[in-house]
TrEMBL record:
The lineage of its organism: Bacteria, Bacillati, Bacillota, Clostridia, Eubacteriales. SUPFAM superfamilies: Acetyl-CoA synthetase-like. Residues 13-364 form the AMP-dependent synthetase/ligase domain. Residues 411-487 form the AMP-binding enzyme C-terminal domain. Pfam families: AMP-binding (PF00501), AMP-binding_C (PF13193). This is AMP-binding protein.
């Protein structure tokens, strides 16, 4: 599987070791035999019920039915679109229509309210053996055919669709399984923190299924309860942990997060946001025998494109932020561009740009325009390359990173303007001393008589936005300050309320 994501090969290997555990979450699990059998049945059902190549929305959280649905879509030559059950129904419907989906398959219950004319069906019992004759062989697909579509926050007020071609998924698999300490042997366990609608989940899925390992995917309930979380981590017997830096920091706050809790842990793959230097030092002190990989990559380039061993980086660079990768070992070519699109010399700051097999070809129609300079995809991230190492130093636009999630202030502001009485709105981050987003703050212009209680405002916003985009602080004002050009004076709001 290290050569490519070859689904014929995956089917063969699953069939040879059907007894090995494949997936576990929330007390439910699947062996590779069950995963493959159910996926083949569901793949055949997809092609019979909804002929063609339309994407399939998979709605749920961490239920075992979801990886079955993902594999079924890939076997059937269909793109899968993961939608977390925490999303409001309005967002799911917007994603359905924007993706041009053929159907929505739900793990437990379909989102409500849901338009009757849009087709839905349960993942189970549709994938139960005996329901339909299983798909005999994977459908042949070209490298440019879409494997999956993820939706991130969009600056236009609507979610942005990011289709990922199969070549990108294959290239990511080749790259991540070649990272020292990450590749699993059959039967080993990787623990994944991220929801399937978050591209970081592609790392734990790929590591598990490419190595015939066992994926233990942490549920929302486990992530919210430290005692339950640590019980789950201890019972997992994990060799590899895939998580955001925020999650790792939260674990490190408890002294029980140690080799005594996870004696088999040999590697942690961190991605999605900045890994603070103190967190890296604390982890490596706490787990002296484990490796910590600090990785970087936008959703538009199949999860991650570069990584660096944090222990090596700490020794090489005695102070300052950690690099996010080694240019020579990246999954794609990485350069730093000037505003005009010229490739800058080593050490010069500019915009990080990517080109290669992992990079997508463009957003779904109507979801935004990708910024390409020639064959370079311009990420919008600022950074530089020095001594063969890559640094990411922030954003060149207003996009925010919160617990690994991308948040476009424009989408949140569009939702805020739907609140009764709100005339204008602005979204700004409250940051930690090292520059990371601590919480999302919103400033609302409304007459005092029209102002809603914060909890009521949050409830109404939850009809439009997923939980991770909901504000942590509301500030109601008679008027939002403006600049000489008549635009919201965000710098003044930051000075007066957020510093």
């Amino acid at each position: 599987m290290n050569e490519s994501v070859n689904w014929n090969d995956l089917v063969t290997r699953c069939a040879k070791s059907p007894h090995l555990p494949a997936y576990e979450s929330g007390g439910w699990g699947l062996s590779y035999g069950q995963l493959l059998t159910r996926a083949r049945v569901l793949a055949a059902a997809l092609n019979q019920l909804w002929p063609g190549e339309g994407p399939i929305l998979l709605y749920g959280h961490k239920q075992p039915a979801l990886p079955v649905g993902m594999l079924a879509c890939l076997l059937a030559g269909r793109a899968y679109v993961p939608c977390d059950e925490s999303w409001p129904a309005a967002r799911v419907e917007a994603v359905f229509r924007q993706a041009g989906a053929a159907a929505l398959l739900f793990a437990d219950e379909a989102p409500a309210p849901w338009p009757e004319e849009l087709p839905t069906a349960p993942l189970w019992p549709m994938s139960e053996p005996g329901i339909i004759e299983p798909l005999a062989a994977p459908r042949p697909c070209g490298p440019e055919q879409t494997a999956y579509i993820l939706f991130s926050s969009g600056s236009t007020g609507q979610p942005k669709g990011i289709p990922m071609p199969r070549r990108a998924l294959a290239n990511f698999a080749r790259w991540i399984t070649a990272r020292p300490g990450l590749a699993l042997t059959p039967g080993e366990t990787v623990v994944g923190q991220a929801a399937f609608s978050f591209d970081l989940s592609l790392a734990d899925l790929t590591l598990a299924f490419c190595g015939q390992g066992r994926l233990v995917s942490l549920t929302r309930q486990e992530l919210a309860d430290p005692a339950l979380l640590f019980q789950r981590l201890s019972a997992s017997g994990a060799a590899v942990l895939v998580c955001t830096p925020t999650f790792l920091e939260l674990c490190l706050c408890d002294k029980d997060f140690s080799p005594a809790l996870m004696p088999k842990l040999r590697a942690v793959f961190c991605c999605g946001e900045v890994l603070p230097r103190p967190a890296a030092e604390k982890f490596l002190t706490r787990f002296p025998g484990a490796s910590l990989l600090n990785a970087y990559g936008p959703t538009e380039a199949a999860c991650a494109v570069c990584a660096v061993n944090a222990a090596d980086a700490l020794l090489t660079f005695k102070e300052g932020p950690l690099p996010v990768g080694l240019a020579a070992e990246a999954a794609v070519e990485i350069a730093v561009l000037s505003p005009e699109g010229a490739v800058l010399a080593e050490g010069e700051p500019g915009e990080l740009a990517l080109r290669g097999e992992s990079v997508f070809s463009g957003y779904l129609s109507g979801s935004g325009d990708a910024r390409f300079s020639g064959r370079w995809y311009r990420t919008g991230d600022s950074g530089f390359v020095k001594d063969g190492h890559i640094w990411c130093t922030g954003r060149l636009d207003d996009q925010l990173k919160y617990c690994g999630w991308r948040i476009e202030p424009g989408e949140v502001e569009a939702a805020l303007r739907t609140l009764p009485g709100v005339e204008r709105a602005a979204v700004l981050p409250q940051r930690t001393p090292d520059g990371r987003v601590r919480r999302i703050c919103v400033f609302l212009q409304a007459e005092e008589s029209a102002r809603l209680p914060d909890e009521e405002a949050r409830r109404l916003l939850a009809l439009h936005l997923p939980a991770y985009m909901l504000p942590g602080r509301f500030v109601w004002l008679d008027e939002l300050p403006v600049t000489e050009n008549g635009k919201c004076d965000r710098a003044r709001l930051t000075r007066e309320f957020l510093l």
